[in-house]
Q: What sequence folds into this?
């Protein structure tokens, strides 16, 4: 039976992030993917100015209430960028309406990067987002979001192994089962993730070469690849390796093409590999 996902993020018309990334990646991985948009923007809010922003809060619960009458099972509930902190309370109610015991709740906090919250975020977002994280099976904050969620200063370059390990433990203590912190590095020229699951003594680390640029939307692309691999039966470490490899390939394609980086990474060029991943998962 085909798996079913529901993705709750904004639609940024241009800029390759959120739903315009999650939908194609999960679909390529064989998931029947439903979407509920949290906001509608003309572009993402990094490196663009003058973007439009329509908050879709009024639609979230009516959509989820109607969908709940259909009696569908969702294998994963994937939330990302929310229009404001108050939407978290709606998303919690949407979980009540749409999730069952078997639904993998996967939360990308998606409210900041590089030590700051995104421009449209309100100050309630970190404490509100903590509630979503505590309901999730897996969370994928970047280092900035991790620091905000723990209500501590962004460690930036000072983030050594001891610091990351402590942060991962703090995030796990929010009540989730798996923490995957992105944007972690201990040496110049590398970037990667720290993974801590319940039952592990300390995080494991996976690294790849780092490119000296800011790539918009890569958090969303990474999270979508990771979830796609998990839903195709990969264990968390294997899925994170897959997602890191696919992100690396997407970035190489983007740099080779020369498209301005604010338009996001060219993940389309590796969707064939996601389809292959799905095909081989059916054989295994
Ligand atoms: O990629 C995260 C993201 C999602 N949605 C919107 C954003 C951003 C990051 O800037 O602005 C609207």
A:
């Amino acid at each position: 039976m085909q798996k079913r996902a529901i993705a709750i993020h904004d639609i940024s018309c241009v800029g390759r992030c959120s739903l315009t990334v999650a939908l194609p990646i999960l679909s390529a991985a064989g998931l029947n993917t439903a979407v509920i948009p949290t906001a509608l923007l003309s572009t993402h809010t990094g490196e663009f100015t003058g973007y439009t922003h329509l908050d879709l809060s009024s639609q979230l619960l009516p959509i989820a209430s109607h969908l709940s009458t259909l009696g569908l099972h969702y294998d994963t509930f994937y939330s990302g960028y929310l229009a404001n902190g108050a939407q978290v309370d709606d998303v919690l109610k949407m979980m009540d309406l749409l999730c069952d015991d078997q639904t993998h709740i996967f939360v990308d906090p998606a409210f900041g990067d590089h030590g700051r919250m995104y421009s449209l975020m309100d100050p309630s977002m970190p404490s509100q987002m903590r509630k979503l994280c505590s309901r999730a099976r897996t969370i994928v904050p970047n280092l900035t979001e991790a620091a905000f969620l723990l209500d501590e200063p962004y460690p930036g370059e000072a983030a050594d192994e001891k610091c990351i390990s402590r942060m991962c433990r703090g995030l796990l203590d929010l009540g989730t089962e798996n923490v995957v912190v992105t944007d972690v590095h201990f040496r110049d020229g590398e970037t990667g993730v720290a993974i801590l699951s319940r039952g592990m003594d300390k995080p494991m680390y996976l690294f790849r070469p780092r490119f000296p640029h800011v790539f918009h939307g890569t958090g969303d692309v990474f999270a979508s690849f990771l979830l796609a691999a998990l839903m195709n039966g990969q264990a968390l470490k294997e899925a994170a390796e897959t997602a890191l490899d696919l992100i690396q390939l997407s970035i190489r394609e983007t740099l080779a093409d020369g498209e301005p980086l604010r338009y996001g990474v060219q993940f389309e060029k590796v969707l064939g590999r996601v389809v292959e991943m799905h095909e081989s998962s059916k054989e295994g």
User: Anything to note?
Assistant: The pocket of PXL is lined by residues 10, 12, 17-18, 41, 44-46, 81, 110, 118, 217, 219-220 (CB under 6 Å). The mean pLDDT is 97. Residues 11 and 19 are 5 Å apart (CA to CA).
